[in-house]
Predict the 3D structure of the following.
Amino acid sequence: MAPVKFGVGQSVLRKEDDALIRGNGRYTDDFAPSQALQALVLRSPHAHARFTIDTARAKTLPGVALILTAEDVSDLGDLPCLFNLEVNPFTGPPYPILAKDEVRHVGDAVAFVVADTVDAARDAIEAIEVKWTTLPAVTGVRNAIKKDAPQVWAQHPGNVLFDVSIGDKAAAEAALAKAHAVAEVSIVNPRVVINFMETRAVVCEYDAKRDHLTLTVGSQGSHRLREIIGGMVLKMPLEKMRVICPDVGGGFGTKLFPYREYALAAVAARKLRKTVKWTADRADHFMGDAQGRDNVTSARMALAEDGKFLGMDVDLMSDMGAYLSTFGPYIPHGGAGMLPGLYDIQAFHCRVRTIFTNTVPVDAYRGAGRPEAAYVLERLVDACARKLGMSVDAIRRKNFIPPRAMPYKTATGKVYDSGDFAAHLKRAMDIAQWKDFPKRAKLAKKQGLVRGIGLASYVEVCGTMGEETAKVTLDPNGDVSVLIGTQSTGQGHQTAYAQIIAEQFGIAPERVHVFQGDTERIATGLGTGGSASIPTGGVSVQRATHELGSHLRDIAAEALEASAGDLEFNEGTIRIAGTDRAISFADLAKRPGVDPSKLNASATYTAADGTYPNGTHLAEVEINPATGSIRIVDYIIVDDFGVTLNPLLLAGQVHGGAMQGIGQALMEEAVYSPNDGQLQTGTFMDYALPRAADGPSFVFETHNVPCTTNPLGVKGAGEAGAIGSCPAIVNAIIDGLWREYGIDHIDMPATPERVWIAIREHQRRHNL
């Protein structure tokens, strides 16, 4: 077959975009019929309080159809946490669908109001009488572990869920004891609010004849949502619930989880026998959706005189919020396994503590523990370089795991299959003209500015969500349809899967139709998370396409009276190689007597191990010491993703992730009052997000080394941009501050105020 125009490796334009650009996307909010009832949630204004609630007057207001409180949903199951420790498993506190008697964070849900209109529901919310008795609240893990701290849950003294060790503590302590020098950092990875464009929403329809519910919801996976909301919370047979995920306007991990409103809409729809719709506003989003990051970490590295890393010891405290979200405790525990990074560190230990506070629950956000790990490690590596007077690139090259060591098993048990880490570091430095940086810094100083340059070399793990099944079918018109349980939230699955099929069949992407997010049409699925859609789902699509191709060859061989081995695919036909004799896909589909089962094929793939994308981010920044403002003047990314499926899609994923990292590094932070637990950054007036002007013009390249454990050779790319960006930017800022002022620490977000204060404090201490 001739080279495929639309196959793997080609920069095919996203086929999804035409409808979205024209306003023809179909999101959850677009699906409710005009007669649907509207719902709102009454949320707690207090971080910790006991309460009594009286809904009698509110129920009498015009247009009010139903008000649910904890008493009305007492038969429902709690929202589950799906992670536990294998050794010494914990018992988490309940996460009720509506709080009863006591609330534990601002935004905790206490009532669900259903009415004819949103305005009527809002009037009812205001008419509900709640008597609050406030209780002491605690925010921040450092405060929560203090001896006299208020207790979020009585059954978890000290506010600790678990306190465990990963690695070999004795080996790490021995390495520190014999070290020539020890470098250390103590850093905060701040809490962030994950702001996708489309807020969460749900539409629930009830069919009384079948006693059947249909949930239309913007989620990252329909099947998991049905299993949890339908099976575990509503305790109903799964065949009695259909979950549909239409177009989804961003997810980033946060839309993977089940939420209270989905179950409440289902209860209301069944009780009222009417369609019920709930759509979050930004206040709901800030107070009701799982938030991200929020770690406080201390780390030490034992160093030999020549800069070799001898051992690493880490103490990690992670904020869980008031309840355990779906994967909340896994995020720090799983992330800790990636702390050795790309380096040959033989002795490693990490203490992991998960802490309750009176705040919104915390769970996976783009990278899910790996960005936190990379940030700690790459900050520590720069501290090692300063400790020994080495350059930041030299100390990395000294300690990188070399290609000849692959496969390499880390001290935490991860097995890296491939990579050339020094190569992507060198390429990033070459693009940045690293050697000429002193000239640029000198010129900036003449202009009253301070320049800094920093880098971060990261690794992450992908493709560990579990098995994924794809069904590929030849349609009657000769097009090809794909049914798969992954869920696009903007990544470009329609295009990516079409390219995998085009690679084998040679058909244009427009002739491939991908169907996701419908538990009635698609038997199974894990949804999308952990950058697993292509490493796992892509393999399933490839294998199902290959099997379908074998069926079609057999049918075509009979039709063309030729050997199947002499046939080839060519732009939607199968022809005898070297001739003009061919049969179209449409004619194959309509050929009399063809067994319908031969017109489709399914394949299931489960990765035996994770894949390990890696790369280097390099940032150059300019600091104005008079204002503390920071401008990113250059940003280079060189990544190893194994194999590039579509360069355009890949660049979009990397750019987007890097911009989210820039937001966290420079401006984003969810701030809670230490006194009363109020969310002080609960709107866009107070919570800053990066705009286009805050980002640089990215230079992005790949230095791919194919993955040896994935059949496609891919390593996953959806989260990588958010992993390398934070440490690269902050290392660049500290580089400038260190050379100019001797300042070796600043926490994210490095806001102008924070930078300005650091400089002024240095000047005060030195009487400058």
